[in-house]
Amino acid sequence: MPSSNSTNFSGGLKTLDIVAFFEGSGSVHGVIGADFDAEFYGSGAATQVIGARPFAYNQGTGTVAQLWGLEPDAGNYGSGVVAEAAAMSIDPDTSTGPVTNKYGLKIGDQAGATLTNAWAIKAGLGRIEFDALKTTGAAAGKKVVCVDTSSGILYTSSTGTDCSN
User: Fold this and answer.
1) Is 113 left (phi over 0), alpha (psi -120 to 50) or beta?
2) Residue 122: which of 107, 132, 133, 112 has the closest Cα?
3) Which of 22, 48, 85, 113 could form a disulfide with 74 if both were Cys (CB 3.0 to 4.6 A apart)?
């Protein structure tokens, strides 16, 4: 779209739409809309190997109400039952070689001179649970770290299995 264009669009502009669909009555192992791989087979060093890197920029002078780098969604819009849905699911580590530091999710510093508010994680309604494993001492074993939704205080579940207490 040339910068000289002053037309207002009621919809959005889309450069790529990847859709995978299955309409049969039988079973299917997986329906994957897009699979991005970055594979490094070299014997030298690589600074970064990144499978997917979405960006969203405002490089204009106008105001942008919402600027998201990624907006995943998972929902059931049919009459069938979905046993489990997650807008983002991070698979467990299946590395077969040495990894010095492994993060399921790593969030860099969310601070800057031009930011009014900065959150590393901001959640709306819903229960928040963190499973933690203490490996040594008298309290060794699985612990569940919970957030009290009325006070925002972190606590360890007395049952050691969930935050329902």
Assistant:
1) alpha
2) 107
3) 85
Nearest alpha carbon to residue 120 among 105, 104, 103, 107: 107
Q: For the purposes of burial, counting CB atoms within 10 Å of the CB of 146, is it exposed (0-12), middle (13-18) or buried (19 or more)?
A: buried
DSSP 8-state class, residue 143: E
164 vs 55: CA distance, rounded Å:
38
pTM: 0.62
Residue 27 CB neighbours (<10 A): 6
133, two tokens: 């494993």
Query: In one letter, which amino acid is 165?
Result: N
Show Cβ contacts of residue 55 under 8 Å, excluding neighbours closer than 6 positions.
Answer: 69
Per the CB < 8 A criterion, the answer to whether 144 and 163 are in contact is: yes
How far, in Å, CA of 107 to CA of 105, rounded? Answer: 7
From the centroid of its chain, how far is CA 11? 26
